Amino acid sequence: MKPTQTTASICCYCGVGCGVLIEHDGEQLLDVSGDPQHPANLGRLCSKGATLHKTGDLAARALDPELRLGKGLARSRTDWDTALGHAADIFGRTIAEHGPDSVAFYISGQLLTEDYYSFNKLARALISTNNIDSNSRLCMSSAVVGYKRSLGADSPPCSYEDIEQSDCLLIAGSNMAYAHPVLFRRLEAAKAANPAKRIIVIDPRRTDTCDIADLHLAIEPGTDVALFHGILHILLQQNWVDHAFIQAHTDGFADLAQLVQDYAPAHTAKLCGISEADLNLAASLIGTAPSFLSMWCMGLNQSTSGSAKNSALINLHLATGQIGKVGSGPFSLTGQPNAMGGRETGSLSNLLPGHREADNAGHRAEVADYWGVDSLPANAGLSAVELFEAVRTGGIKAIWIACTNPAQSMPNQTLIHEALVACPFVVVQEAFFTTETCRYADLLLPAASWGEKEGTVTNSERRISHVRSAVPAPGQARADWAIVCDFARRLERQLRPGLPSLFGFSSPAEIFDEYKQLTTGRDLDYSGLSHQLIDEL
Fold this sequence. Notes:
- By secondary structure, the chain is α/β, with parallel strands linked by helices.
- It is about 40% helix and about 15% strand.
- Helix 8 packs across helix 12.
- The longest helix has 19 residues.
């Protein structure tokens, strides 16, 4: 029997970013327990995290590169040199004949930050296209817009410790008890320790999260903005606002105050389908609390008015000065383990690394200079839905899909399947060959899975944590960043002949060092990194 070992790593399921201790024998994952030293979960795990070691289903794993040379043919096993050489030839010819925007990348919040960064540099610096978007577009882009529009930067100004330290906590559009159970356990413990803590839950449904609420506002679906405006109306009426903070730190408050005059309590209560008494109680709890924290998730974000809902809620914090102090602030909970890391690396079509904007000439010049290229593409990239529509109509002729399954997860499945059938060249980089999207792959590239790769992720509170590998990847599977960089070096021979490589990375540590220098302007100790809030870096 081989001796067992323990490796500290991070759970890959949700944005909480729980620390885990992997028990293994160097070849197989044997068990998983919570890491009591990690500040996100302090040893707690939910049922999904506690069974992580059971996800390594070898029978479902993609083990070798597989290639087909025609849509009507079956894929056959090949080697990495052939697979990536073929991909570089196809991408190179497509770019030469149809321009850089004829190719695209659709990536994932399941990727590690180093993977994300490599894909971004490949698309923008080497190929010169902004056609790179993430499945985080479907869940987090509303929060990105809300934060940037209200605060100027996509940076949630809160930490998990604020859960324990808040006097009033509002949960909107989130069933935390199911979706972020470890954070919910922290909230339950905080409520038990301080029964005076007041909790408001906004949800049309009565979920398990509502069981902890002092007040459940079961509003009509889609009336969130009206509710937040109605609460602000009452806050102004009762003078429960921080005029000094508003004067010192905000713009446009007079216009907002005028707008919410139309949301008198009786009218708002009728719009939202709640009682006027409950509306007034919610405003009173928020307006008189020494500290006020809000937490929200997909009930606000996944909406045709998601950005407006985010901004309207953030406005409550700005009006009351409940931001930038202990126990207070607007706190969007991310769904995927590295959705925040993707936002930091610029992995949405409109972003660049370090929360820079792709349509900002100054930002493009900064990143281009750092990467050592003449310029970055100025034309707008396509967001997820637009991207697949362009694939379907022939504008995009080669697409690279990594660590996500759009043939089962994207809206308008008919469009997605039509697009994947029509696309001349589909690359799928995936750990499991059983996903629906793999059926459409002209080239299937086997990727390492959880427990097999090293890098970093950033959780909802913007804490960077070190993901460590415990066992080797099976078959010919490789780390995502290594696949990307190997492909990029081959493509460089066509697009940058004779020039130094932009992808001379030999480890995730080297990628991390370059990425953090670009985003923070500082060198960081990757080898010593365990878990650290970005604001402390």
